[in-house]
Design brief:
Blueprint: H1 4-16, H2 19-26, H3 30-44, E1 49-50, E2 56-57, H4 59-81, E3 92-97, H5 99-103, H6 106-117, E4 120-125, H7 131-136, E5 142-145, E6 154-168, H8 170-176, H9 182-188, E7 191-193, H10 200-209, E8 218-220, H11 224-232, E9 238-241, H12 242-251, E10 255-256, E11 262-272, H13 277-293
Parallel strand pairs: 3-4, 3-5, 7-8
Antiparallel strand pairs: 1-2, 5-11, 6-9, 6-10, 6-11
Amino acid sequence: MFDYAHLKALSIVVSQGGFDKAAQHLFISQSAVSQRIKQLEDKVGQALLVRSNPVVATETGKRLLRHYAQVQLLESELRSEMDVDDPSLPTIVKIAVNADSLATWFLPALTETFKYHKWLLELVVDDEAYTHHLLKSGEAVGCVTTTQIALSGCSSEYLGNMEYQCVATPAFIEQYFQSDEATDDIAQAPAVVFSTKDKLHDKFLSFYFDINDKSWREHKIPSSESFLEAIRMGLGYGLVGHLQANPLLDSGELVEIFPHKRMQVPLYWQHWNIKAKQTSIIYRALATSAKKLLLS
């Protein structure tokens, strides 16, 4: 059996990024934190942390963190079922989600559920192609992801599709997209992409225009709201999810550059296979909202 005080110390060291901050968080000395980690590493027989700045967990450390997070979730459920909820120990549910979902349908889908159960929501935002890594490492109990195949020890449930449309302002289109050769226009027109992790624009140009050499110009703006604002201000063109794009297309503020060229991105809810009601309740709330707002 593991000493859960030691596992908690490991979790806090990783979440705080170092031993000093972990000691402050736990109200113990730094040496006491180090001793707990050492005892845990001695028991496992492997290093659990990479002593970098910030400190990160090794693969074995991530497995222990995942185990600890699952136990915490089950204990929260048990306290609730026994009607012995401790206000000082609220249920914290960590979820990984992509920025576009967070900016549109995700938070409204969960608000009433979290208010009713008095749970605390902790979100980790990453590209939808990477959120499942946070589930695997134990940093989240569930995630919205484009990965259909369930991770080991997890379940995968289809939510729906986010449809991305290539849009820009009328003035931007008049300036950059007037020739007969779309590939020439694309080479000159600055695009707006979310981040270096976001490969949707690359896939769009490769699929529809056979452009694979990264020859276009791009702005990188890692904020869903600022990303859209940059396009609205005429800074560039980009792929915008239908929930954000449609109202602006209806008003004429934005125009679809290639009306018959769209990208469908399927979204899935993956969560741990443990008997915790939180994950099933959250899935039902997400599925209800997704059915109304996402495409099938």
